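@channel anyone free to eyeball this complex?
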Amino acid sequence: MDNSQVYKKLRDKWITRHIESQKSLFEKHGATINNFVNNTRNFAVGSASALMLLSSPATNFLPPPHTIVHEAKIPVEKSVFVASDLSSLVPDEVRELTPSEESSISGVLTRDFGIKVVPELNGIRLNRTYGLIGAEQHLMRYPGDTMDSHFDKVSDDLEYRGSGMAPGLGGWGYFAKSKEEMTQKDADREKYYIAVQSFLAPGFAENTREYISFFKFRKMLVVNPDNGHAIVADIGDAGPGIHTGKHLGGSPEVMRYLERVDGAQKGGVLYFFIDDPKDEIPLGPIETKQEI
Amino acid sequence: MVKHFYSFIVETDTLFMEIDSLEISDHEKEHLKSLAESNIHHAVLDSVLSKLSELDKDIFLEFINSKNHERTWKFLNTKIRNAEDHIKNAAAEIKKELFKDIHEAKKS
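replying in thread with the prediction:
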């Protein structure tokens, strides 16, 4: 059996076992679990959280069960259309895009997502718009925020605790003055932050104050061109260093949604400014407006 | 890997080394490790829940939810005889299955 078959065989077997054991758990203990979920303030939603409670982080790596057993019935994700639109525009090699490429790609993203996406805004641009993304850690949102206080949902705790918390603060300090004063917007800004090499932006040295003000929590559309997954993120930190070979960093949640990993298999993402003067576009995953 | 309340008594290094020995990509190895961890997690939870009354199941879930491993163990030790061994055995059983799967996949 070739190596890819070994992986597939084990993967399918273990996914099937995982699903069966989950089903068995609910058959035996479902009443208690559902009761717990529905009566515990730490759970925001119902049965879906119960499933997560009883799942380790692997669950979210799994394709839906029907994609394993009946591969011919895989539903087409909308993101596939984005990937398809980008496939002829994004170079195979992760490199700086030419102005012409940036124009074409931002045009496609603007059309696909229904929001204005640009490589340059208010005369300011970053050092690049296509780069290798690395994994960042969680950031302290307010004084005293720790990994024990960082997650509202157990499912998030299980999934993202392993990324750890950065020892220092983000580029703009705390996101809120205290836990009590933290708004959903503050929490989302940490959850969906990216770190960009703002210090390498053309003109940064000459206009540091203006540039810092511009970059602070600036919304960007970050897209994995390989799968079409896209997320509205905000600039929450500066980095990574030039010596890392990476061009930007993503929060654990951003990385997971984009399906990008750090290390030897790190991959490229497109990142463009979102022109949102009225602050109307929510942070987080975004789907194409294209109809299937 | 996520630290569960039972992580200190359920050893997974040898299983992960076995997965690492497969000639597959790093991403595939990570995925298999996550799946293995999921399978172990379910086996452990099932073994514990099956030993508890309905009321105690609620309390146990609360402790898991709070991530307070010390309290979880204090509770389990009062409710399940030889709780550690019970969990170790449940994990060992599923790990044995997982090892067997790997060996079969290697041979075929």
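from a first look: The beta strands of chain A are 117-118, 120-121, 124-125, 130-135, 193-196, 219-223, 230-238, 248-250, 268-274, 284-286.
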